[in-house]
Amino acid sequence: MERSEKNMTLVSKLVDIINFRITYKKAPIHLLEKFSFKDVFTTYHYLLENFNIKECLILQTCNRVEIFIIPDKHIEIEEIVNFWAKHSGLSTEKFSEIIIIERGEDVIRHLLKLVSGLDSLVLGEDQILGQVRRTYELSKSHRYVGNVLSTIFEKSIKVGSKVRYLTGINKGRVSVGSVAVNLAEENLEKLQNKKILLIGSGEGASLIAKALKQRGISYMNTSRTFERAKSFAQAMGGNPIRFEDILPSLGKMDLIFVSTIAPYYLLTYDRIKKAAESRNDPMLIFDLSNPRTVDENCSTIPNIDLFNMDQIGNIVKRNIKYRTEEIQSAEFIIEDELKNIESLLKKKEADPVVVSVFRDVDKIRERELKKALSILGSNLNATEIKIIEQFSHALLEGIISTPMNNLRAQIQSENNDAQEIMRIAAKLFNYDNETSN
């Protein structure tokens, strides 16, 4: 279990936020579905009702499953890990090898990198920003998130847009799958009307499937075993078919993607030559395997256009180089915005005290105003009463506004004694957080 619980940072003192996640970095993409929650609403209610959690957000994409929580007082992290492990059908020991747990400032920094595309399988991808936004809006509409997660996620979503606007982190296609599908579109035009086959079920095949899915393009997929093909199709889309069943039908395919780790040619010269003889239109083949699994001599067959990893890799490398050069700029923005989030959290920490003080002092003003008007009796006309009432408001504002503004300023400053200042202010003004909620 990879855990990050460093020394207490300023964010950690302001808010206790915990992130549990399983991503493509620790688990194969086609198996991530095992860790997802099919009935996410039931999961939300179970977590909130059984684990001392005040706020919760569950993020699920094809590349990750993450849980963000704001705990209520003490929380047993291991209990949540055990719950998720049991849900996934794994032992706690095996599950602990792939889960990452972070707490405090590290969680917010991770979220900022995530929405900015720095933590994605494809550097700088745009899709994750929309996925986070939709997940947050869903969680907010059902009141699974409260003031703290709302503050953090709303600001983070804005940061994700800002990073993309101010840097080139999302410019140029850097996914092998995206580049390959893009080249296929340039050569075949509309892919929606084409018969497409994807051979493979690993990471490379997942990137191709994702690019096809984003464009709403249907395809068949096959793998070394039919079970792997079915598992892949459930997670990534596609229509699974047995490899031995597809071989006689290769001639009907307009486009074939091959991305496997097989140590031999899956598409031999003879197989492709026979397939080409049964068609009049060109067939495109993309060999994205390493080592190659399509006989390069297939490129000499009439009506066969073969693209290999070297050709696509050159395009990808050029675009990756450009995006990678933008990482540092994105990280500078993220670190600056992390401070802004700290400031927002500090302000929210001070707001209940300030509101409570103004409310209590205003009650005193009203009480004393009534006493004064009662003593003065009926000698006052409506205009005079209004002047005295306005005077009472002005007096209150003049006395209380300055210390309250100073309190806000001190809490939002870099002062390491912010929490102590809050404690003293709460004591001075008899503020009780429990009774004020």
CATH architecture term of the largest domain: 2-Layer Sandwich
CATH topological fold name of the largest domain? Beta Polymerase, domain 2
Neighbour order of strands in the largest sheet: 8-7-6-9-10-11
**What structural class should be given to the helix and strand makeup?**
alpha/beta
Mean pLDDT: 86
| Helix percent band | 40-55%
Uncertain parts? none
What is the first-to-last residue Cα distance?
36 Å
The CATH homologous superfamily of the largest domain corresponds to Glutamyl-tRNA reductase, N-terminal domain
Major pleated sheet: 6 strands, parallel
| Rg on CA atoms, Å | 30 Å
Count of discrete domains: 3
Please state the overall shape, judged from the principal axes of the Cα atoms: elongated
What is the string of helix and strand elements?
EHEHEEHHEHHHHEHEHEHEHEEHHHHH
**Name of the CATH class of the largest domain:** Alpha Beta
Strand proportion, as a percent range, falls in: 5-15%
Total DSSP E strands:
11
Number of helices: 17
